[in-house]
Structure prediction request, 428 residues.
Amino acid sequence: MPNYLKILQEELILALGCTEPIAIALAAAHAGALTGEKPETIDVYASGSIIKNANSVYVPHSGGRQGVLISAALGAVAAAPELKLRVLQKVDDAILKQALALTAGGHVRLHLEKNVDNIYIRVKVKTASHTAQAVISQVHHHLSYQELDGKVLLDVEKQSSGGLTDRSGMSLQGIYDYATSVSLEDSPELTALLDQQIHSNMDIAREGLAKPWGQEVGRTLHDMADGDPFREAIALAAAASDARMAGCDSPVTINAGSGNQGITCSVAVVHMAHSMKAPPEKLYRALILSNLIAIYAKQFIGKLSAFCGVVTAAAGAGCGIAFLQDMPLDEIQMTLTNTLATSGGIICDGAKGSCASKIAVSLHNAALAIDMSRRGKVFQPRDGIVGQTVEDTIRNIGTIAAEGMVPTDQVILKIMTDQSNHPDHKEA
Prediction:
């Protein structure tokens, strides 16, 4: 059996800000820390997928600014790589002022790096005395290369897994068995991790409802919920994304490299558990199931693609909620199949405000999938992409994302690049 505890520990990470711009900031921080001096120029070389996902999202502690350049500048000036995906946590007015001077002066430049993995960021920082480079690749916080003044200090770029535990043995049955049988009393580190997810992600969800973040998708949905617990759960998840995409400085526990996915597979499950007055142990087990199903499905898709990852996260949440409602494994499998067969294929056009709507659509679909499954209704093999087993369906989704949607990703990036280069475009 795979080490499911270690997999959860590797994937459920506390992050401040959307993971792509924060990964850029982290690479810049690693390079900036090596120089030990004030940056004079910063060059960012990134994959198209990283650029796409960092282009439109607001960056925490940036004074309401978006994108790659401010992320790199803040990271290089702050130079706090030890904070990992919370690298911008200690940014203050002085750091922001230096970063803005660098971007305004044209000293921070972005370059598209071709023929690299989807997660690839190389940042070169030049100071008065030094030149340093750092690479983040394969995983958003995985430092794979460092160089100072031409001397290589670290080079593990060819490490195919990004240092992660092997997931090849994961299966829905294995995940279910682990979720239902793991001793919570003997795993305090597991319950502490789940408590972190509950508290961080519900905190930002409540923040999203309390204030007018972004386009207020969550608040709009909450006004329409009319006291229905599931609709409230969907509204809370969307509100959390509203706040996160608009640059809220509350951290989120991510899943599979994504804050929106971490929000999607946890917030609705937690709210439903609370509304049902489920005991803590049942909530923990539902979250284990939801998180691991999201991770399992995502491994076939890849960390970044043109396939919107909140679909698989919502499928995990649907399974977690079905578990809370005492649905047996065969109906949980039906829920997973029904969700993937319907909303699979929502495109990812980068991290930005409309992610909240995509979370809502995917979770609404998961609610339908649960109700269908309770009635014994499930889409059948050869209904489109539905395979002979739920495992086959998961792999089919992965094939579509990893192979079929590569041209889609390229077209999306071209559209976004063309819009950024339009003469009427203005930086936020």
In short: Confidence is low (pLDDT under 50) at residues 422-428. The CA atoms of residues 345 and 363 lie 14 Å apart. Residues 16-155 form a domain with the 60s Ribosomal Protein L30; Chain: A; fold (CATH 3.30.1330).
